[in-house]
Amino acid sequence: MPVRTLIVDDSPSMRALIASTLSRDPEIEVVGTANGPLQAREMIKALDPDVLTLDVEMPDMNGLDFLERVMRLRPMPVVMLSTLTQAGAEISIRALELGAVECCAKPAAGMLDGNLVATVKAAAGSRRVRLRDPATPPTPMADFTPRPGALIAIGASTGGVEALIALLGSFPAHCPPTVIVQHMPATFTTSFAARLDRLSKPAVAEARHGQPLVPGHVYLAPGGTHHLEVAGGEGRYRARLIPDDPTSGHRPSVDRLFHSVARTAGAHAVGAILTGMGRDGADGMLAMRNAGCFTIGQDRDSCVVYGMPGVAQEIGAVTRQLSLGRIAPALIERCRA
């Protein structure tokens, strides 16, 4: 059955453009369009859509307030649509924290947005999950000291904002150098890194080309323009930003990061592949495991979208599958001196 989608946007031209973009795919049915939250509320009751696309900025009630009400009163998959501005990015990050499955850039006139189409279809099969496992409280790690040469590499996509906030919230201040690729538009990663920095004990920032990777710091790949790779040798790692073509359909690519970690750090590194659609990172994680790294895949029950970790599990790239609440302690313990 097609994915029944309701579009919410205050602009008539944008509603028509989004509807046209989505309707080109036979697996999506646009069941209605609403000019704002008040109309959308009635249409949700009447149409019972599978997925909601929601404008971040609207005059009657902003998208965040409406999203919060939807998630409280009638939880459903929501894809936020945002302009690629700094203000839009900050609001979008908050929307993902509130429970939106993904945030996409608004489509441009005359351009078929394949990412929006794929995201809406993935959202229909997504799951809203509890990010913390109440049966396994975070392990105290205040006395943690990383072993020499330890390095953590993490890849995530759809659902990754919530997952990374939960995971890094359990990291000790003096964690091993940690490199992350999260699929995001170019303007979003600066805001996301700042958000993670406020919520985590380690320092979190976007990676810069050539900078040393040191304990107590987390490095997020800048969105859109470069791949993040790790260069150097044991205990002397540094970041490389490569302005190359997309790999596995993405830039930055988790595969590019993981392959570089396998070459550079070998068995000194540990890796985790988190929730996300597609297969980016699976082949790179297999290279890491073959190089002697301990690798973790997020399990199906705690994933919003069991795509990337599912493929990694299928091809034998995962040493252990764990729920999200167990991943941070496992990564840290593998890096303990």
What's the Cα radius of gyration? 20 Å
Number of helices: 11
Query: What is the N-to-C succession of helices and strands?
Result: EHEHEHEHEHEHEHEEEEHEHEHEH
Percent of residues in β-strands: 15-25%
* Estimated helix fraction: 25-40%
Under CATH at level 1, the class of the largest domain stands as Alpha Beta
Average pLDDT, to the nearest integer?
90
The gross shape turns out to be elongated
Distance between the termini: 53 Å
Full CATH superfamily name of the largest domain: Methylesterase CheB, C-terminal domain
Cross-sheet strand order for the largest sheet: 8-9-7-6-12-13-14
Provide keyphrases for this structure.
single chain, alpha/beta, Rossmann fold
Please characterize this protein's 3D structure:
With 337 residues, the protein is α/β, with parallel strands linked by helices. It has two domains: 3-124, 3-Layer(aba) Sandwich (Rossmann fold), CATH 3.40.50.2300; 151-334, Rossmann fold. It has eleven helices and 14 strands. The protein has helices spanning 12-23, 37-47, 63-73, 86-98, 114-124, 160-168, 188-199, 254-264, 282-290, 308-314, 324-334; strands at 3-8, 28-34, 51-55, 78-82, 102-105, 151-156, 178-182, 203-206, 217-220, 227-231, 238-242, 269-273, 294-298, 320-322. Strands 8-9-7-6-12-13-14 form a seven-stranded parallel sheet, sandwiched between helices. Strands 2-1-3-4-5 form a five-stranded parallel sheet, sandwiched between helices. A two-stranded antiparallel ribbon has the order 10-11. Helix 9 packs across helix 10 (308-314). The longest helix is centred in the N-terminal third of the chain and has 13 residues, at 86-98. The protein is elongated and about 60 Å long. The N and C termini lie far apart (53 Å). Residues 130-137 have low confidence and may be disordered.
